[in-house]
Batch of 2 targets.
Target 1
Amino acid sequence: MSTRARTTPARAALDTAKVVGAGMARADSDGLASVTMRAVAADLGVTPMALYNHVASREQLIDAMVEHVVAGIPHVVSLTPWDTALRERILAARSTINAHPWAWAAIETRTAAGPAVLAYMDSLMSILFAGGLSPDLIHDGMHLLSTRMWGFTRDVLPTPALPTDPAAQALALRAFSQDYPSIVRMVTTASVAGGECDTQAEFEFALDVIIEGLRRRA
């Protein structure tokens, strides 16, 4: 009686792209903190040591993930004035990076810029140079844009939460208004009072103010 050797399907060869893709998938579903070499290896069905043939460390993996996201920012081919082109490029970055919320924290914690990150920054400066802005103004403008060039803003506004009970809320506002009248005036009379902030509109407002300022200085 003949016997056939049992075979198991060969596992697809591991490469850097698969490791980066697994890291991004994990970050997209469970956040950046969940991305560890052990967890990514488990997702890929390999041992952690197998990853080190492709990325030297967790930080290098996150560097590569950031590079992948930034490389995916669409190029805005525009014959419009420099200020419009700059706005379109940054809003394209915001749309791309918003699809991966973990990328905000990852970008802020990187210690070195990879080729895709440098190419994106260079593209912004190229737009500004094409608009006739001076090197000094471009230098200051890039610092002014700060995280906004990546499509997000890091706000530091530690305002206290009001009680949910209407009576307690009214009492808290009354006491708060005595000490901080301008804050209460703003939060109770602004058009967004009592609702959620429109983060897209707020981002575009800040970006437009910056671009308007650069235009005037130019």
Target 2
Amino acid sequence: MQEYEGRIKLNFKILATFYDFFDVPFRFNTTGNPRLGLAKKIPNAALRILDVCVGTANSAIAVAEANNQNQIIGIDLSPDMIAVAENKLRKLGIQNISILEMDATKMDFKDGEFDIAMVSFALHELSYELMMSILKEMSRVVKESGTLYIIDYAREERFFKRLILSIHLKIFEPAHIPQFLRYDWNEILKSVGFRVIGAEKYLFSKLISASKNSAL
């Protein structure tokens, strides 16, 4: 586990300063932005939301700006990513997000503490075993009938978009990304106590919605 923590902190120490450039395509194509799609799905109510692997807080900010009654807690292992996120929150004056340095495989939260958990463009970075460990922890801290949202890469059908995505994945993403794109999310999430209730396609990505169901 120490090796995992060290690798994450080192990788994102390097990436933190330019990580937000990866979101540039979403700024020019707002209808294809999965973060805005996620924000629209969450009611503006007094909900406790956990953003796992919050990074520079792009998804958390999208949700917080749309829903000022939500209370969002973001966690991440990288102090450098957290520093970038907190600087953005100060500049934007956002008050309903707090960020903690925490290992997502062993969260310091009680069972059923959150109404919603979300994770954006992070699971593809992890080995299958680490990903499953984090999803199990997310299931533990989400209340019964709570909701899980996952944003991550998805295959493109059109040639030009498929070419751009392929080049990006080969340069910037881990070698196991082809396997990740073939994961059966219905079976994966069922195994950790969630039921997929929807999947929407966005630019280079998809948004998966799932409900926690103790009967599974």
